[in-house]
Amino acid sequence: MSERDNDALVALLQRHEAAILDEWLREQSASRRRGDPAQDAEARTTSRELLAAIAGALAAGGGADIAGAPWEKVRDILAELSARRANQGYSASDTATLLFALKQPLFRHLREDVKDAGKFADALWRASTVVDSLGLHATEMYQKTREQVIERQQRELLELSTPVVELWEGILALPLIGTLDSGRTQVVMESLLEKIVESGASIAIIDITGVPTVDTLVAQHLMKTVAAARLMGADCIISGIRPQIAQTIVHLGVDLAQVTTKASLADAFLVALKRTGSEVHLRQAQKG
Amino acid sequence: MERIPILRMGRFLLVTIQVDMHDQLALALQDDLTQRIVKDRARGVLIDISSLDVVDSFIGRMISNIAAMSRVLDAQTVVVGMRPAVAITLVELGLDLPGVRTALNVERGMALLQEPLS
User: What CATH architecture does domain B6-106 belong to?
Assistant: First the structure.
C-alpha cells in the first residue's frame, strides 16, 4: 500500500526535479539571512543531494516513518546539515523551516499534475507527512548537536576550574571559582589529594574567594575535603571568606571550628609558611 | 594463621599493612597490638597503610578503635600513607578518624611521634 501511495510523488519528483529544486531554493533564500554566494552554492549542493535522496527513499517505498531503512541516506544528510547549521548559529526553527519550505513547490506541482481530486488529496497528505517528519528529524538532530556542544563545554569547564598550584615547598593552594556542586567537589577533592601525594605537601590552602554562595551543602563538601586531606596527613586552611559568606555560615549553623579559616589568601599563606618553618622578612629599605 | 607483623623501633611500634585487610586479620592485629604495647611499654604506634587500596566501614572502624585503645594505654597512634581513594571512602562513610594523627609518609609520621619526647 505504501508504495502505491508514493507513486504520485515519485513520478512528480522525477519529472520536475530541477524545477522543484529551484523553487525550493528560492523559498529558502527568502527565509534565510542575507548570505554570501559561497553559502548559496553550499545550500544548492546540499538541497540537490537531499532532494535526490528523498526521491530515492520514496521510490524504495519509504513511508512516513523515517526511522526506516529506505531513509538512511536522507537521515545522514539531515544529520550533517543540522550539525552544520547548529554550529553556524542558526536557530532550530530556521533549520526546520528550511525543510518545510519544500512543501510549497511540492504542492504546486502536485496540483498541476494530479487532476483527480481524490488522488490529489492522498498525494498531498503523503507529501505533507513526509516533509513534516523530515523537519522534526532535522530539529532533533539540531538539538542533539547543541547538547553535545553543551556537554563538551561542561567537561572543559570542570577541568579548567580546578587547578591545584604549589605556592611554596610543601604548600598547595586550591583557588575555587564558581558554584560548587557534588560532581565538582568530587573532582576538586580528587585532584587536591592526588597533588598532595605527588608533591608531598603538608599544608593545603583552599581559597573560596570565587565561590559566589556557600550553603550547607557547599560547606559540607568543604568539610569533607578538609577531612580527607587530614586523613592523608595534610592540614587545610580555608581562606578568602567574604563578610557576606561569614554571616551566612554562622546563620546556617555550620561548624567550622575544626578548620583554620582566614579572611585572605595572604594571611593563610603566612600561617602556612610559619607552620612549615619558613618566614617572610622585609628587606631593609635602602637609603639614598 | 597469617598475622600482620609488628616491629619495634625504640619506644615505638611499627605496623605495616601490606596485605588485603580482612575482618579476622584486623581483629588479630587489634589483639596483638594491644598486648605488644603493654609488653614493650611502647609510647607510640605508627600504622603504615600505604599499600591498602580498599577499605570498608569495618576496617575504618578498626583503625579508629586501635587508635583509641592505644591512647588508653598511653601510646600515641599515627596513621601514615593513606591513599586518596581510601581517604575519600572513609570520609564518605563518615569515618574521619577523630583523635588519630596522620602523616603523609613514615618519615613524617616518625617525626610526629618523636615531637613530644624531645
Answer: 2-Layer Sandwich (3.30)
